[in-house]
Amino acid sequence: MKTSNKIFIATGLLLLAYMVGYDFTLKSAYEKGDYKSRFYNMTELKFNNFNIVNQQAGNMLGLRVEHGDKYGVWVDKNFKDWVKITQNGQVLNITYVGKNFRQAGSYQGIVIICPVLSQVTATPFPKPKDVEEYNFGSDGGIEIDGFKQTLPMNIRSDKSISVTLSKNTLTDLTADIGNSPKERPRLTIEQNNHIATAHITMQGASQLSLYGPAVEKPDYHLGDSTMVTLSGSALKLVQPKL
Questions:
Q1: Whole-angstrom distance between the N-terminal and C-terminal Cα of the chain?
Q2: How many CB atoms are located within 10 Å of the residue 104 CB?
Q3: Helix locations, the chain, DSSP H
Q4: Residue 189 CB: number of other CB atoms within 10 A?
Q5: Phi, psi (degrees; rounded to nearest 5) at 82
Q6: What is the distance between the alpha carbons of residues 193 and 170, in angstroms, rounded to a whole number?
Q7: Which of 53, 60, 52 is CA-nearest to residue 159?
Q8: What percent of the chain has a predicted confidence (pLDDT) above 90?
């Protein structure tokens, strides 16, 4: 038999083995119902007793922080080796350790669950000195969902990082967004939020979107270059300050 034929046959057998293995894995997941889980194809990391999230690659890694009775941290298996998560006291630190800087901003798939959230800090991943092609990205972002607490919540973010609040009931919210005149960090508060007191400072060319959340005592400080989007009851919240 010719060498070329042997290589062809070996390649075919290897491909067949891969397809059989993949089919078996898929069938196993289907039979167990794993595919129905919201954490399907994600890896659970063991962390406990944190209430502060420090996102150190906010322009590259998208994450969701949501309320839950138990602590949990889940990362998409497709890029778990590119993400480094550590804990220092009550602070959970997230950063990027991968080398694919050209597709930065496209990694969505981190879920963080905790009973109480006191602070979220989001800063961009700095451009490596030895990397010429680098997409700073603006597709990371943070979603904060479902917290009902009397403990004050503080949010700080900068550069082109977006923060979205959804389904939260908060006694006190303080948000300090942006300090760069060129970048456009965004803060979005959906209609399904109820906030007793909100202290919001928007600096630089930041963007604030209020889609009619219930805010009893608003305290807004907007920069000269801040872009504001309002709808519903939010129109009444800022009207006295215009």
A1: 85
A2: 23
A3: 3-32, 234-238
A4: 26
A5: -95, -5
A6: 8
A7: 60
A8: 52
pLDDT band at 180 (very low <50, low <70, confident <90, very high): confident
Which architecture, in CATH terms, is 41-241? Answer: 3 Solenoid (2.160)
Separation of alpha carbons 174 and 16, rounded Å: 57
Q: Which of 84-93, 127-136, 155-164 has the lowest mean pLDDT?
A: 127-136
The pLDDT value given to residue 12? 53
Q: Which of 131, 129, 127 has its CA nearest to residue 57? A: 127
The identity of residue 142, as a single letter, is I
CA–CA distance, 10 with 117 (Å, rounded to integer): 55
β-strands 72-76, 42-45 pairing:
antiparallel
- Residue 164 CA, distance from chain mean position: 9
- Residue 62's nearest CA partner among 115, 125, 114, 116 is 125
In 3D space, the residue among 122, 133, 225 whose CA is nearest the CA of residue 183 turns out to be 225
Tell me the backbone φ, ψ of residue 46, rounded to 5 degrees: -90, 105
pLDDT in tens, 4-30: 554 555 555 555 555 545 455 545 544
Assess contact for 178 and 158: CB atoms under 8 A. Answer: yes
